[in-house]
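Input record (one chain):
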Amino acid sequence: MRRLALGILLLLTHLCEAQFGSAVAFPNSSEKTVLDKSPEFFVLNWKQGTILNSSETPMEIVVDSVGAQKVNIFRDNSDAPVLYSSNIITPVCADGDCRLMHITLYWTLLGDYAGFDRSSEEPLTKHDHDEFLFSDYWKLHELLKDHNSILKRRAIDELVTKPKPSTIEGVDALSGATIKEVKESVVSGALYSCYVAWHLVHGDIKDQIKAFTVAQQTEQMWVRMLNSEHTNYQMYALENLDENQYKINFSRVSVLFKSGIPLVRSFIIKNLASSFSQSPTTMQPFWDALPYIDINTRSLLLQHIDFASDATVTHISTQLSVLTKNQLLKYLEHLGSKKVISTEVLKNLERFSASNKEKNAYLVTEFLEDNS
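The corresponding structure, as predicted from the sequence alone:
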């Protein structure tokens, strides 16, 4: 049976090549050399007027039954790398009827999924070769964005219920129903196509792309990443900037502290811990962000309260309602260590302690009583 299945697979591949031409040559003839608009499905921001030019890299993706397909890099007018791309063409078969799946995949400079373009002439198809609807393409996009999908941990034959799938590798018309755990995340009737696309995006090529980027990275690249809205770019830049570069780009770093995700914020504050004691005035933008940041980052920030200016300490006394119980205790501990508490701070504390809406008001009441 295995020999028969292999023979059928080779025959199908030969038929595909006979119908569409050389499998290796075909992608090259349709490869985009200029990108002047955002890919249709895209996770990065696209600035209007951007024009990217493609050039070759030594990297390739090996696609079953087709062979190696090139991975190119798109650069801007300053020759800075922006995006990686590969025009993927691979056979998808259903009930013995084979067609080629055409999809142009994009990766970020760090090898993460960036998006895809569909072919206007060769749309993706489902079981019985029904064409993908826009909602199907969007569902595929959402699936490819999930780098930790169940598809990562399961073989294709583990994604359907018994009976076992067809013995012909690559057949999309798998016998049995798609299992419940994955059914909602893949396009109905296109399990195999979704599976192949996900593994092409998140396979070994990810590490190869990142290594290729690292080999040509520059300070200018880090700065561009720092100013990106893409979280992974922000983190990569923050991890690579040295102390002097942090100072030069402090304005952007302080903005990210206020607007970034908790992971970015905590990394920044830990990396700049010494700056709170060395240059407390410079760190004022961090204290200004206190009401807007998440609870954990706020706790990290308050660990540096002893180095805050008197003006900052006074301002925090007007924001006590955003503090958790432990954060409020930390702030009151700092006030208790001071020889004199300003009249303005005391008024704000009294106002807070008198509020019926603040569940932690009793802590301030006790503090005032102990320090009267």
